[in-house]
Amino acid sequence: MQSCSIKRIERLAGLCLLLVVSSPAWCQQSAVDKMIADGHYNRAKPLVQAVLAKHPQDLDALIELSTIQWAFGQLDAATGTAERAIQVADGSAIAHAQLVNILGAKLASSKVSSFEKMGLARRFHREADRTLQLDPRNLYAHEALARFYWYAPAIAGGGKSNARQVVDKLVRLDASRGYALKAELDATENNPAAVQADWQQAVTANPGSYTAKIGLGACLLAAGGEQVRAAEEVARKSLALDPSRIHSYRLLAAVYVASARWDSLDANLKRARAAVPDDLGADFAAAQAILDHNIAAQWARAEECLRSYLKQPSEGLEPSMGMAHWRLGTVLEKEGRRSAARDEVEIALRLDPSLDAAKKDLKRLQ
After folding, report:
1. Rounded Cα distance, 48 and 63, in Å
2. What's residue 6's pLDDT?
3. pTM summary value
4. What whole-number distance in Å separates Cα of residue 187 and Cα of residue 10?
């Protein structure tokens, strides 16, 4: 049996690991909470803003807004909103857990300096300890702590043995989420067989978990060969669980590109646009898969998909408009249209100056 590579998982499944932490830090769900948990941030945002306009100290709405801001990469705003939630209810574990999540995102961001991260690490640990003091079973705090221990240098308090201990505790609290996190950590150690086994265990622990199925499907697809059909089967099962979420369509788009089933790809993209009209992530996934597989005969199709994606603002946690313009520039360059490619890369860098790979492309195109 072939195994999977985490870099391909991230592209093929659209960062499926983020599904585990993409909902506000509490268990009971309102209609808005479900929108956020399902990745419909653009739908949720005006509803949350309307609540806060009338009730500026609404704890649930503050945590929801912080999560939406995080999903769009607005980490400073998300931090401030989480801090407001704590001011409203300092004894709330969910409020502190929200701040823990946002501080963790900052620690993982390449846009935050190493010097700033040292201070953030201390604050992160204080908030995590406070969350677990208020609620020793808080899943979000355990996930965030495990990541901190795993990724942080020893001088900042990191330690992989500590991370493994926290993951083991998380498995006891929620096996499916625990194994999903274990998959993330195992992937960083270039252990693809373990990653696939982790996702299998996540599905076994909770067969109804959409997130676990997407993670497993991405692993199977990345393994290639005979596993591609298995990935399609898992993607179809996740689609049956919830056809209103984009992740299954994205995974299927990558499956059909990998197996050169172009009619099936077109039909899948049509279904995705109808089912999730405000999230065109499947179009981007199809174009990215064509680039990943370097399918020269399908450059025009990749261009069409990217232009479709660029017709409306991106959803939270989806590739940014800057990223999409850069990828379009890549396709145009491969088609031999250097001037048009340069224009797209310039737009990408105006929208997101942090795209270092795009800077290298622009230098080459000039």
Report:
1. 10
2. 37
3. 0.92
4. 11
More confident residue, 81 or 29: 81
Q: Which residues of 308-326 are buried (b: 16+ CB within 10 A; e: fewer)?
A: bbbeeebbbbbbbbbbbbb
Compute the distance between CA of residue 289 and CA of residue 14 in angstroms, rounded to an integer.
11
| CA–CA distance, 26 with 13 (Å, rounded to integer) | 25
Residue 12: band (very low, low, confident or very high) from pLDDT cuts 50, 70, 90: very low
Q: Which residues of 261-299 are buried (b: 16+ CB within 10 A; e: fewer)?
A: eeebbeebbebbbebbeebbbbbbbbbbbbbeeebeebb
DSSP string, 198-226: HHHHHHHH-TT-HHHHHHHHHHHHHH-TT
Position 164 pLDDT exceeds 90: yes
What is the pLDDT, as a whole number, of residue 110?
87
Q: Directed axis angle between helix 321-334 and helix 281-293, to 10°?
A: 40
Tracing tokens 């069409």 back to the chain, one arrives at: 304
* Cα separation, 278 vs 276, whole angstroms: 6
Structure tokens at 127: 């908030």
Q: What is the pLDDT of residues 216-255, one digit of tens each?
A: 999 999 999 999 999 999 999 999 999 999 999 999 999 9
Distance CA 133, CA 136 (A): 6
Is residue 223 within 8 A of residue 56, CB to CB? The reply is no
Handedness of CA 75, 155, 95, 168 (dihedral sign): positive
Which of 299, 241, 38 lies closest to 286 in space, CA to CA?
299
pLDDT at 311: 98
Instruction: Name which of 111, 190, 205, 145 is nearest 21 in CA terms.
Output: 145
Residue 211 contacts residue 16 (beta carbons within 8 Å): yes
